[in-house]
Design brief:
heterodimer; A: mainly beta; 7-stranded mixed sheet; 4-stranded antiparallel sheet; 11 strands; about 0% helix; globular; B: mainly beta; about 45% strand
């Protein structure tokens, strides 16, 4: 079974621009979560989508948004980029079903550099 | 904030068992203990999870104390490729409003030749 894929793997943008990152979950998984990892803050949860609906949200400003399509693929958008948005952005997929354990499987990440 | 406490770093000799401790004294009855690891600049890798019984898979064993306030991840025969940051995470069941993995700083395990 193919793993979680993320595109692009590397991205360089300048301040003020916007960026869209893409994530394709493992086949059959309906939940996609996004995380930001920086040296200072570590791994932080951004949001989770399940069946095209945002189900959970972390403490990030509204410049960070996402969506999920009917095939469970997800995109994450960051508008008006700031230097502090430079980070590794990780996506994780899982079955997302309620009532039991739910292992999340991570993709390789997209390394975003804001100049 | 992470609900777990782990040592910052540990060393282990290649071929020996690596025992990584984790304290989660405020764990709730329906919360699971998950272990992930992250090799430098890669995405975290799922290792194992458990509720109250000990668990074993092809990668590791998870020992959870009877009061569930602490656990130990055991890598039975550590290799150099096991050098990574190991995260112990407590989380409720899937589908709930708190459905996220809250990562702490983890334990940097260094396996030495």
């Amino acid at each position: 079974k193919a793993g979680v894929t993320q595109t692009p793997r590397y991205l360089i943008k300048t301040r003020g621009q916007q960026v869209t990152l893409s994530c394709s979950p493992i086949s059959g998984h309906r939940s996609v979560s996004w995380y930001q990892q920086t040296p200072g803050q570590g791994l932080q949860f951004l949001f989770e989508y399940f069946s095209e609906t945002q189900r959970n949200k972390g403490n990030f400003p509204g410049r960070f948004s996402g969506r999920q399509f009917s095939n469970s693929r997800s995109e994450m958008n960051v508008s008006t980029l700031e230097l502090g948005d430079s980070a590794l952005y990780l996506c994780a997929s899982s079955m997302g079903l309620a009532g039991g354990p739910d292992e999340q499987f991570f993709g390789p990440g997209t390394r975003l550099t804001v100049l | 904030d992470a609900k777990t406490t782990q040592p910052t770093s540990m060393d282990c000799a290649e071929g020996r068992a690596a025992n990584l401790p984790c304290n989660h004294s405020t764990i709730s009855g329906n919360e699971y203990v998950y272990w992930y690891r992250q090799i430098h600049s890669q995405g975290p890798q799922y290792i194992i999870h458990g509720l109250k019984n000990n668990e074993t898979n092809e990668m590791a064993s998870l020992i959870i104390t009877e009061d569930r306030k602490s656990s130990t991840l055991i890598l039975p025969h550590a290799t150099l490729r096991d050098t990574a940051v190991y995260y112990c995470i407590v989380r409720g069941t899937g589908g709930g409003s708190n459905y996220k993995l809250t990562f702490g700083k983890g334990t940097l395990l260094t396996v030495n030749p």
